[in-house]
Amino acid sequence: MGRLVRRSRTTQGADEPDLASDQALRAAYRAHGPELYRFALRQLRDDGGAQDVVQEVFLRAWRSADRFDPNIASLRVWLFAIARHVVVDEIRRSGARPARAFGLAMEETSGAKGIADNGFDEQKMTAWLIEEALSRISPEHRTALVETYFRGRPHAEVAAEQGVPTGTLRSRLFYGLKSLRVVMEEMGVEP
Predict the structure, then answer these.
(1) What CATH architecture is 98-191?
(2) What does each C-alpha distance from 169 to 86, 89, 97, 166, 183 come to in angstroms?
(3) What's the topology of domain 9-96?
(4) Which residue among 43, 45, 87, 110 sits deepest, i.e. has the most Cβ atoms within 10 Å of its Cβ?
(5) What is the pTM of this model?
(6) The two domains 9-96 and 98-191 share their CATH topology (first three levels equal)
(7) Domain ranges, ordered by start, for the chain
(8) Which stretches are annotated as coiled coil (predicted)?
(9) Cβ(5)–Cβ(66) below 8 Å
(10) Are 150 and 156 in contact (CB under 8 A)?
(11) CB of 172 within 8 A of CB of 178?
(12) What residues pair up with 44 in beta bridges, in sequence order?
C-alpha cells in the first residue's frame, strides 16, 4: 500500500480544493455532506449522532487540509475515510454510555448480541425497566435525564430549550437520578 505524502499548500495544483478556505470547505460540504450524513445515519441509527459525525468530519478535514492529496484519493474518498474513523469513535464512545447499551438512544441491532442461550434478551428487558422507571418520575426530571444523560446533549442547550437556568437543569438531574434510583429499588431492580 502506498505511503501518504504530506504536501504543503504551495505545491497544490490549481484544481485541488484548498479545504483551509471557507469557500472550498462550504463547497465540499454541499457536495458531500448529505451523502456523509446518510452513511453515518445508516451506521449509527441516530439522527443527532449522524449530524455530529458530519460536523466532526468537516472539522477534521479543515484541521488536516494539508494532508489531502488528490494523487492518492479523491476528496470524496478522503472524506469517507475520515467519516469511517469518526463513526468508529462514536460507536466506541456510545458503547460506554448506558443509554446506547439500553437501546434508548439508538435502535436495537438484530442478531445474537444481548440474547442469552435460553432466548431471553436481557438488553431489551433492561431497556424496558429503565423506560418504565423513567415513566414514574416527574416530567421535568425525566426530560432532563433523557436529554442530557441518555442523548448526551449539552446542559446549556437543554436548559435553554426548557427555558430554565443551567443550574436548575443540573438540580433536576441530581434529583431526577435520586428519584430514578428510588423507583428502580421499588421495582426490585438492583443498581
Answers:
(1) Orthogonal Bundle (1.10)
(2) 30, 28, 20, 5, 20
(3) Rna Polymerase Sigma Factor; Chain: A (1.10.1740)
(4) 87
(5) 0.45
(6) no
(7) 9-96, 98-191
(8) none
(9) no
(10) no
(11) no
(12) none
